[in-house]
Amino acid sequence: MRIVLVGLPGAGKGTQAAYLAKNLFLPHISTGDLFRENIRQGTELGRQAQSYMRAGQLVPDEITIGMARLRMRQPDAVDGFLLDGFPRNVFQAESLDQLLKDNGDSLDVVLDLVLPQEEAVTRIAGRRVCRDDSSHLFHVTYNAPHEPGLCDVCGGELYQRQDDTEETVRKRLEVFDRDTSPITAYYRLRNLVVGISALGSVAEVTERSMVALRERGIRAGRGDTHDCDP
């Protein structure tokens, strides 16, 4: 089973990818993890990627594709995977198709987490992080602290990360519209896209995704002959 997860920033792709991968017994492959692991191991691709990142430049597609190619060849991914953050543009999508074709494989489904843009802005711009412990996360609307500006756990100051400001979020959405949203149209031509509402709780979105997969006849991994449970 080979799945690609797409959606606006703020749609919850990382969270959903983790839950779905666990339910489907699939490795979760994310672009961020690929970069971090290659940099940590000091691979040639990792060194190349780090040089671009340190210069504040985008990592070229060829490097990202090379990392994805190596990761998909690892034993745990031979029979399937869930991709999160890759492909990021149509060129990467075409390259992924060729990688799979070379191995006699193909994608099974593209799950599109659908979220209104203004909701994406609200979700991201409302995030607040504790300065004393970045694992303490809050939201001004959905998970507000008892005392404004202070962490409920340790009393540390809550702040808004630069990447979470409304201005930055809207720029990210513009980049998504330009570079990433065409992927959905690319895959829709092959009847691979299933739209899933990203509104509601994490559990609700996960259940919608699992139901949609069952409806397309996609079953759990590891040779399981039973439909996946929601």
From TrEMBL:
EC number, UniProt record: 2.7.4.3
One Gene Ontology term from the biological process aspect of the record: AMP salvage
Region of interest (NMP), ranges: 30-59
Chain ranges of the Adenylate kinase active site lid domain: 127-163
GO cellular component, as recorded: cytoplasm
Binding site for ATP: 10-15, 127, 200
Keywords carried by this UniProt record: ATP-binding, Cytoplasm, Kinase, Nucleotide biosynthesis, Nucleotide-binding, Transferase
Pathway the protein acts in: Purine metabolism; AMP biosynthesis via salvage pathway; AMP from ADP: step 1/1
Gene3D superfamilies: P-loop containing nucleotide triphosphate hydrolases
CDD domains, alphabetized: ADK
Top enzyme category: transferase
Places the protein is found: Cytoplasm
Job of this protein: Catalyzes the reversible transfer of the terminal phosphate group between ATP and AMP. Plays an important role in cellular energy homeostasis and in adenine nucleotide metabolism.
Domain description: Consists of three domains, a large central CORE domain and two small peripheral domains, NMPbind and LID, which undergo movements during catalysis. The LID domain closes over the site of phosphoryl transfer upon ATP binding. Assembling and dissambling the active center during each catalytic cycle provides an effective means to prevent ATP hydrolysis.
Summary of subunit composition and partner proteins: Monomer.
UniProt similarity note: Belongs to the adenylate kinase family.
PANTHER family to which the protein is assigned, alphabetical: NUCLEOTIDE KINASE
Protein name: Adenylate kinase
Source organism (scientific name): Streptomyces caelestis
Lineage per the UniProt record: Bacteria, Bacillati, Actinomycetota, Actinomycetes, Kitasatosporales
Gene field: adk
